[in-house]
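Tutorial handout. Part one gives the primary structure; part two gives the three-dimensional structure as tokens.
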Amino acid sequence: MAPARFGGRALSSPSDLSAMIGWQLHDDIAILTLERGGARNAIPIAGWEALAGAARALATSDVRAVILRSAMPGVFSAGADLAEFRDLVADPALRIRFREAMAAGIEGVAALPMPVIAAVDGGCFGAAVALTLACDIVVAGDEAVFATTPAKLGLTYPASDVARLKARVGEGQAGLMLFTGARIDADEAARTGLAHRRVAHARPSAHELASAIAANVPEAVRALKSVLRDPSEAGHTQVFDDAFGSAAFSARLHAFLEGKR
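Part two.
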């Protein structure tokens, strides 16, 4: 895979072809792509590590919005790569590396300062659901199907991911999903809040949302995301006050008032 570019600066994709996490920049929007078709986009340890690296690059960029999507039709991601789980049976150290790599990838996405939109067209299972929970907005297309399946294998979900699921859909619905591992279609996902927008095709809708976000003042959007993340965090009041003195506010207010004449 050729290096992707952010604002003219080359960024190398992982050399391990089993970890297909690609990224591209379209205007002020970053497209973060899961691209491992032969394995239904199952994410190996190297893939989680590559995702964390992509998140680090994005975090220091001037990107205004991020879209997380699959490169293949009919599937978002099968979650963690079960083929690697055989090695975890006999290797406690590898279990730690897997847990830490997965957390680094998911938390890296969750910590991004700009909004992240997950475009889900197709199956989204296991750890891939946790990955969408790290996104700010989830768009579900007609073919979207979600399931949290660790209990089927005798496993649990990381506590941080359980907390996000509970916050997103409520304790009862989270319990239904985790305890049964049952599949939820796009309509049910939208009804419960697991998805925020229900559309025929997620990718074009996600691009429309990202474009609307990118058209706004990026500093204001990032500040609003910070408030949503933790309303009690110190400094929000000062940011609110200071925004009235910003050049961006002055220019947009002037344009708005002139347009009203």
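Part three, for discussion. Confidence is low (pLDDT under 50) at residues 1-19. The two ends are 53 Å apart (CA to CA).
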